[in-house]
Design goal:
The structure holds 2 protein chains of 2 kinds.
Chain A lengths: L1 H12 L7 E4 L4 E4 L7 E2 L1 H11 L10 H18 L7 H11 L13 H15 L3 H6 L1 H11 L25
Antiparallel strand pairs in A: 1-2, 2-3
Chain B lengths: L1 E4 L6 H11 L4 E4 L17 E3 L5 E2 L2 H11 L6 H27 L3 H21 L12 H14 L10 H11 L2 H11 L8 H5 L28 H12 L23 E6 L10 H20 L3 E8 L4 H10 L3 H18 L6 E4 L3 H16 L3 E11 L4 E2 L5 E4 L8 E2 L16 E5 L7 E10 L1 H18 L4 H12 L5 E2 L1 E2 L16 E2 L1 H4 L2 H10 L4 H4 L5 E8 L3 H15 L8 E5 L2 E3 L14 H4 L6 H10 L7 E3 L1 H30 L11 H22 L3 H22 L1 H4 L4 H25 L4 H11 L5 H5 L28 H10 L42 H23 L4 H21 L15
Parallel strand pairs in B: 1-2, 5-6, 5-17, 6-7, 17-18, 19-20
Antiparallel strand pairs in B: 1-3, 3-4, 8-9, 8-13, 10-11, 10-12, 13-14, 15-16
The chains are: A mainly alpha, B alpha/beta.
Chain lengths: 173, 923
Amino acid sequence: MALRELSSLEKSLGLKKPNKYSTQGDKKVPVLQSNNGPSLTGLVTIATHLVREANRPELLGSTAEQRAVVQQWLEYRVTKLDNCPKEEIKTILQDLNQYLEDKVYMAGDTFTLADTLMYYGIHRIMVDLAVQEKEKHANVSRWFDHVQHYPGVRHHLPLLVVLRNRLYTSGHH
Amino acid sequence: MKLFVSEGNPHCVKVLAAVELTGVKCDISHVNQDEQVVPHLSRPSLPALLLPSGLHLFIPNAICRYLFEVSGQEVSDQSNQWLEWEGTELQPPLMQALHMSALQGKGAEAAGTLQGPLSFLERSLNKRATQFLTSEEVTVADIVLWAALYPFLSDSSFMAGDLGQVRAWFERVGQLEACRSAAQAVLKGKGLEALKGYLQKQPVPHIQHRGAQPCNQAEGEDAEHAITEEEIQAAVKTWSQALSDFPAPADRQHPILPKEGKRNVLITSALPYVNNVPHLGNIIGCVLSADVFARYGRLRGWNMLFVCGTDEYGTATENKAREEGLTPQEICDKYHAVHAAIYKWFQIDFDFFGRTTTAHQTEIAQDIFWRLHQRGYLLEDTVEQLRCESCQRFLADRFVEGICPHCSYPEARGDQCDKCGRLINAVELKDPLCKVCKQTPVVRSSKHLFLDLPKLESQLEEWLEQSVSSGDWTPNARQITRSWLRDGLKPRCITRDLLWGTPVPHPDFSEKVFYVWFDAPIGYLSITANYTEQWEKWWKNPKQVELYNFMAKDNVPFHSVVFPCSLLGAQDNYTLVNNLIATEYLNYEDTKFSKSRGVGVFGDMAKDTGIPADVWRFYLLYVRPEGQDSAFSWADMALKNNSELLNNLGNFINRAGMFVSKFFEGRVPQTELQPEDSRLLAQVVWELRQYIQLLDRVRIRDALKCILNISRHGNQYIQVNEPWKRIKGEDKDRQRAGTVTAVAVNVACLLAAMLEPYMPTVSATIRDQLRAPPSSASTMLHGAGSFICTLPAGHRIGTVSPLFQKLEADQIEALRKRFGGQQPEEEGSKQQPKTDATSEANAKPATPAPPAEAAGNFAKPERAKQLAQEVAEQGDRVRALKAQKAEKAVITEEVAKLLELKKQLALAEGKNPEPSPQKGKKK
């Protein structure tokens, strides 16, 4: 799974020659094999490294503050979102919805690596949401739809339908 | 910028250390742990950093990274990698460990949970060349990991394997003032205690996966199995089937013979060599493992025969006889009895425990020999051998000693070097000496017979392929066998120039006997023949019989290659091994058991420790070297006894029984199952099935964990439902207390059944206390395993009493010292006066003084006591000097005094001052 993400990321970054990966342990943590220097382990580590390789530093944030926010959501993705127990999903969606209320992207007004990896990570949750639930978390849905249509991002994942007009007007409880 | 932290929150340590270390200016605000600081999060989340833009950072590692970055230190890929590892691999088990340790008092389990990530860290630190994790300077990675591990590593009693590198690194980072003050600010010097309030408010952490790094999967708790609705329904259905009229298991009728339509299982355990007292490693390696499996098989209703015996022929016996001034036969008689007594004490339930020096052995070995000879599988060759002219005989194997040609160890034996472990051909020894008369032997040639293994190789491979693919062969057994075949088989000598052995019947070799490894495995057959005249029904019946061989890994090639070749070549439809179960080695504390150096606990001493045989069995099986070497450790044994047996298993069973006696006049109450009861039933069934699947594949150690998991579930169940409170409540509450008690006591009854292979006495005691129906055990362990309500409502139980006793620290420490090494030495191996001042063993009255037959040695108990005291004091003095790195001459002088004192002490105790072999002492 993580390997497909990384390969999609490579394509969207326009990296020419694909890197060699392996996985480690039963969680299949990705490992980037490297000819020069030691290998790198972990999705976030490798993704950050790839962005630097591709010379797209703006995807990691353009100020120290934004870089910190990007890194925070990257870590959030692998520690909180991945493997989250079922009963936690509701809270995660609620929190994200709240957070995205006044933001276009995860780190503010510009698209970053945080959007890509959060999108890959939350896709499995969004797939299972009913139309009503998507509408309830309108900010998340809006952001999600935005990112899945962002050029070059979607690659290995199927497009999800997000309705833009509200069906359930009394949706707030 | 403003940083929000709260006292007693472990995640705040790292951010405070980072602020202090980087010197980034920001206000620090101490808030209550429930304070909602981050507006978009629905739960309180601390620490949090309010950025100038008004955004919050709420993930601790992100805060640390940001602080380092604004102070001008860029975060490298390597540091990133450690931060990610910390968040994904370390934090989940860490939170679980904190929870266990601070809230549940399960320090030992907590250490087990952390063992995976810690040993990964240890290995990584071992590989790196820098002072800190990623460079010569402290980086954000060091701070984050240091702070995460602080609650555990700052506690000097925390034990989780060998962590030399981790501890050194932890010290180095901890010297930073920033780290110390951050830890102080959060924990207030109270250690784990300080975190209680925080941890209580967190959801109970559980790990979805076992440590994902390829770490040795040490003692971590097994991942919780997610129980499905179907499993729950099935468990409830089975539970309510009353114990049908299962016949009680029939008593064993000897002789046991294969039966048509039954699963006929023949179990052998490697024959222990007679000339020595077995140590714990020998016991777990073969007889105890085989016994667990045999007991299990009997419960499962298989038709089982379990045979073993002492291997009595060979040079070592001759040697021993010479040392003790007895004939070889007398030596064998004496030690056979010693072995039999030890195994009896350990409750090894052989169907027959025989020996190899019998007429049947001669008959069967010679028959196999002639069959091999007639079929052209034996070769003749001359061998160069050492011969001692003064003793008038060839010096085989252990009759010769010399300098190891590989490592120059001066006391290498004729067959193997104890130091480097390599096999030696006796003629290769430098400066060989006859062990008996100390003369230098000469090289002579002698004619011998060889088993033509190359000629049998293709047959062997064909059979192996079939056996290994259809049976259970432990990975080490497969691998060792493969490597023997890969290296190509060579003819193997089967005769020896000795007296004490099965005579070679061929007239040209009339002075010779069979080499012990041709002879010994035939012992399995001859021992069975001594058990029943119809032994061939077991041994020439591969269609009906399934053969399991148990052994330690050093015996594998003889059971998988050499012996099968003998039997294949003899062409008499022999039963060949189907399942070869080999253990790795068990070490003693940090060293090896050594017969010749007397390090470790030997079979006959175990009972002198006052620790019950079942507890020994439990611990040896708990650390059974399954898949990798393991170690016996006194401290760990005490820990496992106190945490697993006493607090977990014993506690649960005892409470369940006590509730029945105290609250329900000794009668099992009515049940009305609620969802949580059903859930427990399903959890228990799942563990029971695991247990059966594992034991069917002889994963003895792993299956033991299932038993402990069930009682853990049980304890939790009692704890949550509090029957002791509800019993005082209204009818509804009382009924609830009844259900919980009835379910719990039935779980205890199941545990008694599952324990039988491991701890037979404890199992019998529990069944006795609960008055369990005789058929309950075999019924529940039948088939895939079913958990049935075997103690129905109204069933009257017996008197309940505690099952285990605590092992106290001082008791264990005394035992550790007593068996710490310098036992009276074996084989009178020329003693170097011990220069190691810690050898206090002689001072300990470890073994009762032997009869004072060594002329003139009379025991003087008073004097001995005084001397023992003096020896201890002098020992302390020497150690102190050594620790201060005093001058060598001074130390030597004090050591000499110590040795003199010890000598006097030995005399006063009536011992020979040159310790002599005492292994054979009678109980």
